[in-house]
Amino acid sequence: MTGEMEQVTRLQSLDLRIAEFEREIATLPKHIAQIEKALDSHLRRLEADRAALTANQKERKRLEDDGKVEAQKISKLKDQMLGAKTNEQYRAFSHEIEFCEQTIRKADDRILDLMSESEPLDANVKKAEASLKEEQKQVETEKAVARDRTAAVQKQLEQAQAERKTLVAGLKPPTYKTYERIRKKWHGSAVAEVLEGRCGACQILLRPQFFQDLRHSEQMMQCESCGRILYYNPPVSFEHDLAAQQP
After folding, report:
1. pTM (whole model) above 0.70
2. pLDDT tens by residue, 76-114
3. Measured between alpha carbons, how far is 165 from 142 in angstroms, rounded to an integer?
4. How far from each other are the two terminal CA atoms of the chain, in whole angstroms?
5. If you ran DSSP here, which 8-state letter would residue 84 be given?
């Protein structure tokens, strides 16, 4: 592999790393939005339970106040009954007292029902408040971890971008222009290794003469099918490695 191709393959590796760093950084707002959405959903359920409990308590208070009013009416009616002049007046007061007493009994029955309903509501609210408090702590921890990770990745991204700038400055302008054109066409994949006589990206078998030229050429060559910049690393045999180690 020529020095120029080494630079191009290194640039491709850097660009892939930079793209990965950028994708990870972009996930932070989405991740935080997801956990905050789940937290908001639990908060709305808690608010609904609180509203139901408050409505229950208000109705009980209203019925208790109505009962007191009815009791006062009964007391007044009994006082008035003592001054009744005729049986008809007495019976009228008696019927009105009975009606007030029925109203009080109905209110008392409803209060008992509301008290029974309020117990699970109150338990749900207390349980939800405790769970929400724990979840809020967990969410804040997750957000802090995500921010720390993003800060670390941002630093790696900036280092990679600086390294890329230096690397690009050392490339011939036509080479870089060709690289960028291919990279945009194939969404980041501009360079491919030749494996077993095939382009490692599109898997098309190279023509024998083209393959031979690629193996020995000092010039940058592109796949005749997909147009990607090709490089070839010849396999090193065990015997070659062993011979290279001999003094």
Report:
1. no
2. 999 888 888 889 989 998 999 999 999 999 999 999 999
3. 34
4. 26
5. -
DSSP conformation class of 128: H
What's the rounded Cα separation, in Å, for the pair 186 and 60?
70
- Separation of CA 72 from chain center: 60
Beginning with the edge strand found earlier in the chain, give each strand of the sheet holding 221-222 in spatial order: 198-199, 191-195, 229-231, 221-222
C-alpha span between 80 and 95 (Å, rounded): 13
Percentage of the residues of the chain whose pLDDT score is greater than 70:
95
The C-alpha R_g of the chain, in whole angstroms, comes to 42
Domains along the sequence of the chain with CATH? 3-169 (1.10.287.1490), 173-245 (no CATH)
Contact 16, 24 (CB under 8 A): no
Q: C-alpha distances in angstroms, 125 versus 48, 69, 115, 183?
A: 9, 32, 15, 57
Separation between Cα atoms, residue 182 and residue 242, nearest integer Å: 40
The residue with tokens 């180690």 is: 245
What is the Cα 178 distance to its own chain's centre? 39
